[in-house]
Amino acid sequence: LPGLVPVRLQGCVSVEVCGEQWVAGGPEGQADVPGGRAAAGHGIIAHSPARPGARAASFRLRTMLQEILELHKQGKLADAESRYRELLTFNPDDPETLHLLGILRRQQGDLREAQQLLRRAIELSPDRPNYYLTLAGMELHARQLEAARADFETALRLNPNLTGAYSALGQIALLQGDGARAEENFKRALASGDERSDVLTGYGTLLLQRGAHDEALRYYTRAAEKYPTDPVAQAGVGRAYAAKGMHAFARQALENAVKLRPDYHPARLALAEMMIAQRDLGGADAELRVLLRDT
To answer: pLDDT tens digits for 243-274?
Structure first.
């Protein structure tokens, strides 16, 4: 949908191990990696028995998880999956292993198992806001809007400083046609002082829907200037210029968006519409054929 953008949640797990950045890190924006402070007190990392043998076993398990995470970050998903599952045979109730395996299964396209793994991690460790954020991101991607909203709100109750969660709630409200709730959440995100692209473009989309074209252009332009490689920001600039009737500027911005991300279909569709408005029917035909091929 043209108004929906990937939301960069707080502290993505070490790297962008999930293609649309739906994965959140630990409390206070820390990366949720094995051995990090955010992980303390949970699962295999938490278990530090007094007996030397048990301590050694715990250290080996922690080291194994770190090694698997490196495979995961390198994109070796099949190897990482096999190792995560092997680790779960030693400790089936480690929430962090379940969490990371859930992220991996989402990357592999099995959203159902991914959500099951995240729900199990939450059952075992219900005080971890990043687990709710990861699950909510998956639910939002699947258009399970009410479930996503509930999990984002739970994450915020656990940690009210998660700017990405407010941005995501704004996106959900936009999709549900609740402009007032969208504005409330985007303004909370903006009040944090963290001018992230998803916040700026989300609020720009709300303003554009309300017909405040100049204000929308201002927020989209700020996003494009701060994040020049973000196709969503470039496409927003294009849509705002189109709404103002400035077709040449709109086309340039939309072409930039498509160059940055050829599979960003809303930008390509908007570009085709702009070409039609400019009577460039050949160009529009070419863009629409790409859309038909890809979708």
So the answer is: 999 999 999 999 999 999 999 999 999 999 99
144-193 pLDDT, tens digit per residue, is 999 999 999 999 999 999 999 999 999 999 999 999 999 999 999 999 98
Q: Find, among 230, 172, 233, the residue nearest to 204 by Cα.
A: 233
pLDDT along the chain (295 residues), means of 10: 44 33 33 34 38 68 89 95 94 94 96 97 97 96 96 97 95 96 96 93 97 98 97 98 97 98 96 96 97 92
| CA dist., res. 248 & res. 235, Å (int) | 14
DSSP label of 232: H
* Sign of the dihedral defined by the CA atoms of residues 64, 36, 196, 229, in that order: negative
Sign of CA dihedral 86, 90, 93, 95: negative
Q: Which of 221, 169, 156, 231 is nearest to 195 (CA)?
A: 221
Three-state SS letters, 124-186: HCCCCHHHHHHHHHHHHHCCCHHHHHHHHHHHHHHCCCCHHHHHHHHHHHHHCCCHHHHHHHH
DSSP 3-state of 94: coil
pLDDT at 102: 97
Cα separation, 217 vs 175, whole angstroms: 20
62 vs 53: CA distance, rounded Å: 14
